[in-house]
Design brief:
With 207 residues, the protein is α+β, with helices and mostly antiparallel strands. The protein has a single domain, classed as Inorganic Pyrophosphatase, CATH 3.90.80. 19% of the residues lie in helices and 29% in strands. It has a five-stranded mixed beta barrel with strand order 1-4-6-9-7. Strands 2-3 form a two-stranded antiparallel ribbon. The chain is globular and about 60 Å long. 37% of the residues are buried. The model has no long low-confidence stretch (mean pLDDT 93).
Length: 207
C-alpha cells in the first residue's frame, strides 16, 4: 500500500454485522463489550442502529464479574439450541461472551480479542442463552489460560452465580436456570454453531 493512503470505513460499522467474528475463530474471537464490572445499568446493543441502548437499571445489587458483550456475526438459533438439550429454541441474539482481565477495564463499546476457554449453559425461559467464557490473550495474569479449568474456581463460580441470579427478584419466579459450565472443546462447538446460525439468518433475510 502506498504511503499516505488511508484505508478506513466511511461509516461506523454495525458491531453485530459490520465487524468480523475474530482473527482465529472459534479459538480466538472478537468481543464487543456492552457492560463492564462497574456498570449498575444493563446496556444492550440496539439491533437497528448498532449503538448501545439503556435496557434497564440492574434490579439487584450484583454487577457482572467480568467484561460482558457478544461475538459479532453470531446468532443463537437452531444449531446452538441443539447443543443445549433442555432448551426449546435459541434466544435470537448474538452469542454472549464474558472476557476475564486482571486489570480493570471501565469502558464499554470497545472491541477486543478474546481466547475462548469454555462457557456456561444458561437457559432463560426455555431459550438457549449460552455465555462463552474467554480471556484477553495479552493479559499478564490470565493470558496463558487455554481452558476454563485454568481460571480460579472462585472466578468461574462468580460468573455462574451472577447469571443464575441477575434476573431474580424477591416475590418473582426465576426463569433462568444454569445447566452447568463446559470446557473449551464444547465452547468451540457452540461458537461454530452460532456462526452457522448467523449465516443461515443472513441467507433467510436476503431471500
Amino acid at each position: 500500500m502506498p504511503k499516505n493512503t488511508l484505508q478506513f470505513s466511511a461509516w461506523r460499522p454495525h458491531p453485530w454485522h459490520g465487524l468480523t467474528v475474530g482473527p482465529k475463530p472459534p479459538e480466538v474471537v472478537h468481543a464487543y463489550i456492552e457492560i463492564t464490572p462497574f456498570d449498575v445499568v444493563k446496556y444492550e446493543i440496539d439491533k437497528h442502529s448498532g449503538y448501545l441502548r439503556v435496557d434497564r437499571p440492574q434490579r439487584s445489587s450484583s454487577v457482572p464479574p467480568a467484561l460482558y458483550g457478544f461475538i459479532p456475526r453470531t446468532y443463537c438459533g437452531a444449531r446452538v439450541t441443539a447443543l443445549s438439550p433442555t432448551s426449546t429454541r435459541g434466544d435470537g441474539d448474538p452469542l454472549d461472551i464474558c472476557v476475564v482481565t486482571e486489570r480493570p477495564v471501565d469502558r464499554s463499546e470497545i472491541i477486543m480479542d478474546a481466547r475462548v476457554l469454555g462457557g456456561i449453559q444458561m437457559i432463560d425461559g426455555g431459550e438457549a442463552d449460552d455465555k462463552i467464557i474467554a480471556v484477553l490473550p495479552s493479559d499478564p495474569v490470565y493470558g496463558r489460560a487455554v481452558d476454563v479449568e485454568d481460571l480460579p474456581k472462585a472466578l468461574v463460580d462468580r460468573l455462574v452465580h451472577y447469571f443464575a441470579s441477575y434476573k431474580s427478584m424477591p416475590g418473582e419466579a426465576n426463569k433462568v436456570s444454569i445447566a452447568g459450565s463446559y470446557s473449551v472443546t464444547h465452547a468451540w462447538k457452540v461458537v461454530q454453531a452460532a456462526m452457522l446460525d448467523y449465516d443461515e439468518l443472513l441467507a433467510t433475510m436476503s431471500q
